[in-house]
Each structure stands twice: as structure tokens, then as C-alpha cells.
Automatic annotation (TrEMBL):
Pfam families: HSP20. This is Heat-shock protein Hsp20. Residues 24-136 form the SHSP domain. SUPFAM superfamilies: HSP20-like chaperones (SSF49764). It comes from Streptomyces cellostaticus. It comes from the Bacteria. Transmembrane segments: none annotated. Belongs to the small heat shock protein (HSP20) family.
Amino acid sequence: MLMRTDPFREFDRLTQQLLNTTGTWSRPSAMPMDAYREGEVYVIAVDLPGVSPDAIDIDVERNMLTVRAERRPVTKADDVQMELSERPLGVFSRQVVLADTLDTEHIRADYDAGVLTLRIPIAERAKPRKIAIGGGSAHKEISG
């Protein structure tokens, strides 16, 4: 048997149940994420613990990146009596508007230890470059 020791966590769980904050396809819950630049790559890391890789959907339309995932209940035998259930189930979704400076044609997605990591390269046109100055006269003298 499990003993509950944090009354505030229990209050949060009850509030979620009362407000029905379990995500559905029409109203998905948010998922926590980090976003940062690592050299020439923009990285988005999304926490999806307990989600099967085949239950994750990643789309890019124009500059809108959408990550949707569904955590399904684990099937249990008929004689199982649930003692505690705090892990959220349902549908999770996150949309991120990507800058025009990112190369959305070459996004790489990896999923390891419950973390979905998206790596989006910085577009070549957005990288700093030197502009050469040409020689010669840029103007003519006009005589009157």
C-alpha cells in the first residue's frame, strides 16, 4: 500500500480531476518544453514520459511546428485494484511558430527516455557572411 505524504500534490490532483484537465483531441493539454540554440542548430526538447513513439505526431506547415502526443492508459487485468493514479492521460499538444531563419526542410526528431528532441538547423541565408567590396569607380563626373 502507498502512503500519500504531500497534501498539496493531492489537492492539485483533485483540482485537475474536478476541472477535467485531461487532454482530449479537441482540447489537448500542454506539455513542458525547453527551446534553445546550440551552435548552428535550434533545439526543442519536449517532455513526453510514458508516451509510445508511435503515439507522437510532428507536423510543420509553413512556419508552424505542431507536436501532438497521446498517453494511453495501460491495460490492466480484471483483478487489479488501483491504489494511486497521478500520471496524466490523454492528448497533449504544443505549437511553436518557427522563425524564417530556420530550415524546416531538415528537422531531425529523436525520442529517448521520454524526451522528444527536435533539431532544426539555422538556414544558410540567415548565417552571417562577409560582403566583398568591388573596386573601381562607382560614379562618373559630369562636365557642363
